[in-house]
Amino acid sequence: MSTRIQKEARKESLLLNMGPSHPAMHGTIRIMLELDSERILNSEVEVGYLHRGFEKTCENRTYFNLLPYTDRLNYVSPLINNLGYVMTVERMLGIEAPERAQYIRVIMSELSRISDHLTCLAAMAMECGAFTVFLYNMKAREFIWDVIEDTTGARMTTSYIRIGGVRADLHPDYKAVLKKAIVETRKVLKDVHGLLDKNKIFLNRTRDIAVVSPEKAISYGWTGPCLRSTGVYYDVRKASPYAVYDRLDFEVPLGERGDNFDRYMVRMKEMEQSLRIVEQAMEKIPGPSPSQLMAKGIEPAEAIKASRAKAVEKKIRLSPNLEGSEKEKYKNILAKDKKYIVPPKEDTYTTIEGIINHFKFFMREHGIRPPKGEVYFSVEGGNGELGYYIVSDGTDKPYRLHLRAPCFHIVSALEEMIQGRYIADVIPTFGSMNMIGGELDR
Amino acid sequence: MKGSFITTKFNYILGWARKFSLFHYPYVTACCGMEYMSAACAHFDLDRFGAGWTRFSPRQSDMLLVVGTVTQKSAPVLRIVYDQMTEPKWVIAFGTCAVSGGIYDNYAVVQGIDRIIPVDVYLPGCPPRPETFLDALIKLQEKIQKQDQEWRWKKRKY
Amino acid sequence: MEMEKKKVLEKLKQKFPEKIKEISVQFGDENVLIESGFLLGIVQFLKNEPYAYNMLLDLTCVDYKDQEQRFEMVYHLYSLNNKQRLRIKTRLSEKDLSIDSLTSLWENANWLEREVYDMFGVQFRGHPDLRRIFMYEGFEGYPLRKDYPLRKRQPRIPLRK
Is C84 part of any domain? Predict the structure, then answer.
């Protein structure tokens, strides 16, 4: 069903279709190759098999409602997409999250970035035949997801980072679990370095394959690890720092040649730097450390009954899925402005101001209404510069929301990168580009 | 189940053999793929249920795992993959987007894959935890055991 | 950096006084609104000068249904050396829905413009291969326009049940 390549192909060459459902575990993409017995003469990439209508759906949801949709864009690093969207809206509203919330955001972002790189390299190595690397990386990823799950409640699609801060404070035992995750990840990285760095087979498949020069990379609009592997120093965390990145000390690794091996190496080194960031943030995080879980406190039904007479002073026992978002933690994790945050549940059910705030936040035509205008803000995603462009017309739904997906630009260079190469080179090239279907097709 | 003692015993043995050696073909599209990958790896092992090895070709597999959102553009592809599989075959719809379209109710998403192919086990969750996936696999195994095993296949009409 | 940003906008205004309609700053971003015919000249000027806006970050379109000039093309440029962003906007009306293509300057404009054509129907003059990228052949209409209903499905194979 291809259009261009069927018209342009020569009669004696073979047309091969690496169809939408293929074992390369990145997502649905179709690559059609015109071959002359293993050498690729021409190729065509067809995307759009995961186009889920994200941008059109967002025009029909309020700013708060569309947080879960942003999780599912780059689904290997979901908290970074959340962060990008939330910081764009915060820029429009002119509010800022408290400092503890920003440190928590940085920790979560870096953990997501580590899990993104782990998954990318796992898939790339598995397709080249190194199945052990895949299993080791998945093992390390489980420990990281344990940390995320303790705090946010979900392993992957969390909707944790909210407008004005984060949803809940860190789990009381987070330090132990986080330290274990860091130790396990370091072990896995050391093992993978030992397995792949000087491995002759891996080097033959990735060294000097699909070399991209810096000028070409800039012309294609590449950002992120793929651009840094060609030698261009551009990282959004250093160029225009957001959250608390300007107070943390980390390096940005650069590559030299821009081939597949450099893209692999840049990702490995970035993971080490992300671990450094997480350790520093763990030391520097301000505010009281989270205390014991809510075991004590009066029952909610009793509190509601008592509140009819006068305001309730005692602590109320909330349900386990609200763990971390009790009222006394609110000033650390969410901004003060009452218009843009969900009020704490103790207030909602026992005081009249609480219920009015809750009502006005969630009702249609009320809630978060940014001023008219448009804004573009970008964060450093796992693949590069993840940017959100929001046009607001003063109502509670965005008029237009556009996502600048980093891997869209990277994949648009694939046709040129594999020209003249063998079929077997397509697999590590495609794997090192880290194409994520949800982000590419939105 | 009608039949004599020998045929019921034969059915039982055939069901036992089929359920513990499932070869699955993962049709992975979206976020649920990450949970599928976790379920197949070391922490939550899929191999102990006999369904460990992924067959990367529909002709050599007997279970189709549709993981993630199926869009209108890839619906014919899914139909072709299903038609290429040989009998007996079973289908698990993994994730809410495969079960019913999920949170995407718009012009581009098929509202559930049972509009294209018949489904045996529905597994909701966004994404479902790996333990839930293993539970679904056990339910499918029970279904295979109790099913009327036919060993002379006629082409079924869908 | 604020001084340099203002210098760019001033110089732009000096060089093309009649082609630039409006310059504004909002939420920390600079916007420049220009006429659609002069896009290529202005963008070429911005790319070559010492301001060197050498990266095309994004290219998209917004549909203002109630206005006379319905579609607004938005271009985001970025300068790696000076670390500055710039947004260029231009308006198109429904009757004359075509604009120059930027594929001669940047390679990623190829796919970005295909996406805008697929979602809105904007024609790009000089594009080497303008066809749909996300939707399939046989899909009628342009989904992201405001008058395309959200739930209008056009199934590719007959669905059962």
Answer: yes
Q: Tell me, what CATH number does C99's domain have?
A: 3.30.460.80
Test B76 with C157 for CB contact under 8 angstroms. yes
Residue C147 lies in a domain: no
Q: Check A373 against C26: CB less than 8 A apart.
A: yes
Instruction: Give the B window 107-126 contacts with C, CB below 8 Å.
Output: 107-108, 110, 114-116
- Span A245-296, pLDDT tens digits: 999 999 999 998 889 999 999 999 999 999 999 999 999 888 777 666 555 6
The β-bridge partners of B67 are B28, B94
Amino acid at A109: S
In whole angstroms, what is the distance from residue C142 CA to residue C144 CA?
6
A127 pLDDT higher than 70: yes
Residue A310, CB-side half-sphere exposure with 13 Å CA sphere: 2
State the pLDDT confidence band at B2, using cuts at 50, 70 and 90: low
Contact between residue A346 and residue A298 where contact means Cβ atoms under 8 Å apart: no
Q: Residue A182 has what pLDDT?
A: 93
Q: Do B29 and A49 touch (CB under 8 A)?
A: yes
Backbone angles phi, psi at A244, to 5 degrees: -110, 25
d(CA B45, CA A142): 13
User: Does residue A433 sit in helix, strand or coil?
Assistant: coil
- Does B111 contact A at CB distance below 8 Å? no
Å from B157 to nearest chain C CA? 12
Q: How confident is the model at residue C43 (pLDDT cuts 50, 70, 90)?
A: confident
Closest CA in chain A for residue C58: A404
What's the domain count of chain C? 1
Report the SS3 class of residue C34: strand
CB of C57 closer than 8 Å to CB of A385: yes
Ordered structural domains, chain B, with CATH: 5-146 (3.40.50.12280)
Q: Does B75 touch chain A (CB under 8 A)?
A: no
Q: Are strands B24-28 and B63-67 parallel, antiparallel or unpaired?
A: parallel
Are A127 and A264 a contacting pair, CB within 8 Å? no
Q: Give the model's pLDDT for residue A312.
A: 74
Could you say which residues from 152 to 191 on chain A have a Cβ atom under 8 Å away from some Cβ of chain B?
Answer: 155-157
Does the pLDDT at position A318 exceed 80?
no
Query: C23 lies in a domain?
Result: yes
For an interface test with B, the pick among C139, C153, C154 (most B C-beta atoms closer than 10 Å) comes out as C153
Give all domains of chain A, ordered by start, each with its CATH number. Answer: 4-46 (no CATH), 54-288+369-441 (1.10.645.10), 300-362 (no CATH)
Region B72-90 average pLDDT: 89
Reply yes or no on whether the pLDDT at A15 is more than 90. Answer: no
Residue of C nearest to A219 (CA): C106
Q: Tell me how close the Cα of A47 comes to any Cα of chain C, in angstroms.
A: 6
Interchain contact, C156 vs B76, CB within 8 Å: yes
Looking at A129-259, list the stretches that DSSP marks H as alpha helix, in order from N- to C-terminal side.
Answer: 131-152, 174-196, 200-206, 214-219, 225-228, 236-239
Give a yes or no: residue C135 inside a domain. Answer: no
Q: Tell me how close the Cα of C156 comes to any Cα of chain B, in angstroms.
A: 6
For C64, the domain range is 2-125
Q: Which two tokens stand for residue C137?
A: 């052949």
Q: What secondary structure, in 3-state letters, does A85-113 show?
A: HHHHHHHHHCCCCCHHHHHHHHHHHHHHH
The answer, for B71 touching chain C at a CB cutoff of 8 Å, is no
Predicted local distance difference test score (pLDDT) of residue A110:
93
